[in-house]
Give the backbone structure.
Amino acid sequence: MPTHLVSKVVVVGGGIFGVSSALHLSRLGIQTILVNNGPLASGASGRSLAWLNSARMRSAEYHRLRMIGIDRYRTLSAKYPDAAWLRFDGGLTWDADDGSNEIMGALAHEKSLGYDARHLRPSDIPSATPGVAINAVTPQGAIFNPGEGWVDLPTLIKLLVAEFVERGGQLVLDAGRATVTLSAGRATGVATETGATFAADAVLLATGSEVPRTVAQTGQHIPDGTPIALLVRTKPVALPLRAVLNTPRVAVRPTPDGALALDSAWSEEQVIVNSDGTYGVKASTLQGLLEEASKVLEGNPKLELENYGVGPKPIPGDGEPVLGRLNDVEGYYVAFSHSGATLALIAGELLAGEIATGNEHPLLANFRPARFA
């Protein structure tokens, strides 16, 4: 057991970053309290496409972290080989048939990194990954990434929280919005809207899109590029599709119960943000997303709406993760990033290690909040 510089930590946020970090802290023998303002997975984790990947182009450091993140999921998959909620059946992507098509450039970049990427002509697709309407694929072809996968985050969160509680972790749900308490330049705990207070040696703020606003109370700035996202879930449908599809008009992934999860950039832009902070989604947007998904699926099946989730999708202003201790505030850590599913297991592991020992991990060097100071 390592020598701990802290003995008690409060983690704020019941999404995948918070839950993963809380469990890793408990595994290190640290008394940990996980506080959330509602039920578990009630924020972005509950409406995430949760595609496990490092496709396309990003910084070398971000790619490396994502690949290590995927490796942690492979270890988890080996422990649960028959899990319906964690699958590695590949990802297939194609671009529009216009000047924005970057398939060959993306393919060359991925191959230069050693990322498993294969160029498929439309006629090659059925033998590589079934369930796709090949007439929907543009003439430039598609990239198939056989090492990619997806995870059902609410199911994973339940699994991780069960271990957290077994290890003696304290779970506090429906606590209302939490405020980090500060004294003499360090975090000393958390106070919630319900009146509860929790003293601690360190606090990890993992509240998704709320992170920049909460951190601003310390006078520090984290740029925020968070959009409002829409995830549509269909009723179960009999299809051979196993891969995650990323196409010009819709992204599609299977779900554990045989349904599909759908999102897109254009449908996000049609979400109505009301003056009271609530969201509206037009029936035409929902129907349009179902129709776009049908077009890319073999046999163009009729898809029916089961439900949808709408709300902020955490994305830092520069697109890179924000992970680690706030500049000049002892004991105050944050986790704020896009790709929460891909990064969750490794980010929780590394953050827990930093909080427990005070030693900064080199994998997070480029992602610290201090870069905005």
Summary: The longest strand covers residues 305-312. The chain is about 25% helix and 25% strand.
